[in-house]
Amino acid sequence: MGRARNLGLGQEPTTGSAMRQPAGRIGITGGSGFIGSCVADRMTTAGSDVVVLDTRPPQRSDVAYRHVDVLDLAEVVQATRDLDAVFHLAGLSDASDALARPVSAVQVNVAGTANVFEASRRNGVRRTVLAGTAWVYAGAQDDAPIDEEVPFHLPSAGHIYTSSKITEELIAHNYCELYGTPFTILRYGDVYGPGMSENFVIPRFVRQALEGETNTVHGDGSQFRNYVYVDDLADAHLAALSGDAENDVFNLKGPEPITIRRIAEEVRDLLGAPFTIEGGPLTPGDYEGRVISGEKAKRVLGWEAETAFPEGLRHYVDWYKRTTSLAH
User: Fold this and answer.
1) What 3-state class would DSSP assign to 127?
2) CA-to-CA distance for 35 and 73, rounded, in angstroms?
3) Taking the complete model, does pTM exceed 0.90, yes or no?
């Protein structure tokens, strides 16, 4: 896995794969969730002083925990008072949930992000790292592969989730321009791996295959995602503390785009289970997928995802079968 050339927040550059402890105390909003817990693991392994900021306790006992609702500004300000960096991962990340509850999506993603950046401003936090998404490219007009400089075409955003994430990025830029609050934006591809929400497509396909159900692929299944394995993604967060990453935006993509139909076929082949794949109607506002460039993250952060999709899927399936058998 590539590593950052140097870490910001006062850390000296290192050579090889080893990295010294990131300076200061690092808070992670949503640090008890799927991605947040993996980032907490990565930071802790690297020797960071980690504080999980969430409404539920973290999965590991060796990190500090502060109960934080990102919609409560006073609570966020108090919880971040002694932090040097904040990774803002809390928010509504399920597009189908955002479709069903658009007002909640806007409240949590937009107001929550504003509260985090306001807390960072008041407390002089030295870096606020925002969890963005490649979905912001839904309306991009440029040819693939799309890099971080491509302008958004707002009328083609296509989804309330996408609009809320674009707004989050605007808030980050505004706080930097108006108040000098440093930021880094990480535009995730679709993240997968052990512990991911069962509402997402990979867990649904795996469950259906194991239970012998018929799978319905929305549309013809040609829509695709830039799937990135969660452990690879967690490494990128450590690299994002680089001084070179300050006030900048990075795509974090997997090794290759993966179509929805390919996911179904990979699951079927991996499990060797009866699994009928049928077409169905498209979900309103469904993201068809855009081919994005990961060259900037590779060049500036020294990071690129290495876990091939079949390997990551196998890790997830092994975990799923193990945890399901334990539950019974």
Assistant:
1) strand
2) 23
3) no
